[in-house]
Amino acid sequence: MDAPRAREQLRRRYLFPPDTEAPQDREGYARPASTAVEKKEKPLPRLNIHSGFWILASIVVTYYVDFFKTIKENFHTSSWFVVGGALLLISLSIACYCILYLEWCCGIEDYDVKYPTLIPVTTATFIAAGICFNVALWHVWSFLTPLLLFTQFMGVVMLISLLG
To answer: pTM to 2 decimals?
Structure first.
């Protein structure tokens, strides 16, 4: 089956209009589109409904469950909390090393290619920290602990995304 006939069958099957195919050279192969006619994509707004919801939910959770007071009261009573804090510190340190030093100072944009173990180690330590925090605070909020901590996490992530 030749290429023009195959394209025509695909166009009919998926109901593509005839002008949607890529420009072709003499041999019938698609060539790259011209970069001079590229469309400028409008950037998405930083504050949207999704990020606003998570930030607002995090604020509500912080207020209604006395989050900081509970953390302050339970900080010294549980070794799980200390281990979780240490793991979180390790995770954030690796993330700062990747972003601040490797990307900004050294100019290595694909640090995950050059140092393939950094991302899995960071992810594993962050997940272990989350588990430790859940165990440490389980006696306070019971089965709501994972939901509350996840809401706080998403609120922080969305707040950081507004800044950068």
So the answer is: 0.69
